[in-house]
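Input/output pair, single chain:
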Amino acid sequence: MSTEKPLTGRKVLLIALAAFGIVIGANLAMLFSATGTFPGLVVKNSYVASQQWQARTDAQKALGWQVEIGLENGRLSVTPRDADGALVQGLDMIATIGRPTQAKEDRSVELQLGADGYSAPIALAPGAWRVEIATRSGPAFRIGAALTVREAN
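Output:
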């Protein structure tokens, strides 16, 4: 004698609705998570931003600077060198640091000139970071880089 209950149309409908409910719920969770973090907006109006792009790029290339960006022992270092390899001094530089996919951890630090270049102390959690270095006065210069902070052992 079998005690199994038969598979009825009502049970199949409930199983199908539950399966679709789980899929739709997961999709909605991912949608809200994706749109609630980094919106993907880099500039407010890309057309306006592009109008002077080539002129700024050409002017920056004409400087002939080579820039090294590093992060070691909680210190961000930026070393701009001119075409002759000499350290470029007298710049007012700022670094904007944040995560590549969200804006909530973005912060800016002023870089101070030292013997080996410009630097600033900064504490960053492990993971991927993006940094953009820009001059606030003097020759206009802007450069970005990706940084990875490893967990301390």
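The first helix runs from residue 9 to 35. The chain has two domains: 7-36, 46-149.
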